């Protein structure tokens, strides 16, 4: 068995170029690790034959030349299964490959090897479905790696694959990154195209990666960003995310430290970890802490109000006959979408405008916000979402969404980085949030924090005993 690569993807490219390891060996290591895994349940499809063939001719001079990567099952790859975590779509196959995956494969030279699990249609913050079963956290397999990109998070942190794709429509990259001790960025809206067949409404979702290092994420953006004619919202290409790491003058930047991001119930242990990490980062960068009053409007109402009509359009022809095929949470959302009215839809836009104004006011007062990624340690892998944080009753997954959804609704970027471990030994994520189009700045801040507070690149369980 070939040992899996447990450093970051950029170092693997360096090892290829130094001829310390070959792309074929790296791909075989992924295949062996996935085959040997009997615990994480992070992978739902393996394309061994094509991956090994691609590895034999890999161009290691490309940014990710020869690097094996995972693709979350919400992103189609032509010819691969495309069930989106649902028994309703079991047996379907991808009709095309997304521009995102194409760019990482063709521009970047990386090799898609495995498909990773998602929550059903990406609608739930943990990864347990009737189709694939339960995906588990490599830091503690009794607990969830989060969702909806839980499979990629578990695979990358668990040592199965060096890097993989994620999607983030309400926190689905950042939440798993926080729970699994990884780097996860939700970019400014449509930095990476959502194409072909670009999603027009709701305007929440972004695509990106979950990685072990800031430079991996920066290089990923270098490869994947840029406008595409099939996504009318996609942004012009920006150069130099990786080259620009550490080049920003951070001294004097105004920073608000808001562990609860103005409304979530956050466990005191998480608050303490965020405060400690923020203090270290602010001191290292010479930034200024600014106290602000910030309370967010009801983000869950905006997010669900914008999403429910899309759900209804996609599944109403089969409802309620399909109820038994769906997870309880998705069935409940379908029932809500059935009752959704024109008046409900009309109420969404004013709330969205209010939220956008709140964020605009915030970023007139400060340059950056530091906040928790998740309110507490991860909960049971099988779910459901938590109803208590410490001694306080909460609204389940909606409480977590208060930390993450606002960035999706307003389009601002946020990167989650590991900020330490909880008393139970689980990763705690810290979000670095900025105004729209500050992605490069956020990555520079994250890189400084990475140098000041290095984190384990994989979970302890990924390393040989």
TrEMBL record:
Pfam hit, one: Amidase
GO molecular function: transferase activity
Domain Amidase per the UniProt entry, residue ranges: 25-443
Keyword Transferase attributed: yes
InterPro entries for the chain: Amidase, Amidase_CS, Amidase_dom, AS_sf
Keywords per UniProt: Transferase
Top-rank taxon, per record: Bacteria
PROSITE patterns, per database record: AMIDASES
Family: Belongs to the amidase family.
Protein name (Swiss-Prot/TrEMBL): Aspartyl-tRNA(Asn)/glutamyl-tRNA(Gln) amidotransferase subunit A
């Amino acid at each position: 068995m070939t040992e899996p690569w447990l450093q970051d993807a950029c170092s693997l490219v360096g090892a290829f170029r130094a001829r310390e390891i070959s792309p074929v060996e790296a791909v075989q290591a992924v295949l062996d690790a996935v085959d040997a895994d009997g615990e994480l349940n992070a992978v739902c499809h393996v394309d061994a034959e094509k991956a090994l063939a691609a590895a034999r001719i890999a161009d290691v001079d490309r940014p990710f030349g020869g690097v094996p990567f995972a693709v979350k099952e919400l992103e189609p790859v032509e010819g691969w299964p495309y069930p989106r975590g649902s028994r309703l779509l079991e047996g379907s196959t991808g009709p095309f490959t997304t521009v995102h995956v194409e760019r990482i494969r063709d521009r970047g030279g990386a090799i898609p090897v495995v498909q990773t699990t998602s929550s059903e249609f990406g609608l739930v913050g943990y990864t347990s479905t009737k189709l694939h079963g339960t995906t588990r956290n490599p830091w503690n397999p009794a607990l969830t790696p989060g969702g909806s990109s839980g499979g990629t998070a578990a695979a990358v942190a668990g040592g199965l694959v060096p890097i993989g794709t994620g999607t983030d429509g309400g926190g689905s990259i950042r939440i798993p990154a926080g729970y699994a001790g990884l780097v996860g960025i939700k970019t400014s809206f449509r930095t990476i195209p959502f194409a072909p067949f670009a999603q027009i409404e709701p305007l929440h979702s972004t695509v990106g990666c979950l990685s072990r290092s800031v430079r991996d994420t920066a290089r990923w953006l270098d490869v994947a960003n840029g406008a595409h004619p099939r996504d009318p919202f996609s942004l012009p290409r920006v150069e130099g995310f990786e080259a620009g790491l550490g080049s920003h003058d951070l001294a004097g930047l105004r920073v608000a430290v808001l562990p609860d991001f103005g409304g979530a119930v956050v466990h005191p242990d998480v608050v303490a970890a965020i405060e400690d990490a923020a203090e270290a980062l602010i001191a290292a960068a010479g930034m200024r802490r600014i106290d602000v009053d910030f309370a967010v409007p009801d983000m869950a109402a905006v997010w669900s109000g914008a999403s429910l009509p899309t759900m209804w359009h996609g599944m109403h022809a089969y409802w309620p006959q399909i109820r038994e095929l769906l997870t309880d949470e998705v069935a409940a959302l379908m029932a809500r979408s059935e009752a959704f009215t024109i008046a409900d839809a009309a109420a969404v836009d004013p709330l969205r405008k209010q939220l956008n104004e709140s964020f605009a006011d915030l970023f007139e007062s400060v340059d950056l916000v530091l906040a928790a990624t998740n309110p507490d340690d991860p909960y049971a892998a099988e779910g459901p979402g938590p109803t208590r944080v410490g001694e306080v009753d909460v609204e389940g997954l909606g409480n977590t969404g208060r930390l993450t959804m606002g960035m999706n609704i307003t389009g601002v970027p946020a990167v989650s980085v590991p900020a330490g471990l909880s008393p139970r030994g689980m990763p705690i994520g810290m979000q670095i949030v900025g105004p729209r189009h500050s992605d490069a700045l956020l990555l520079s801040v994250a890189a400084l924090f990475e140098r000041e507070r290095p984190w384990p690149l994989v979970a302890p369980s990924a390393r040989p005993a």
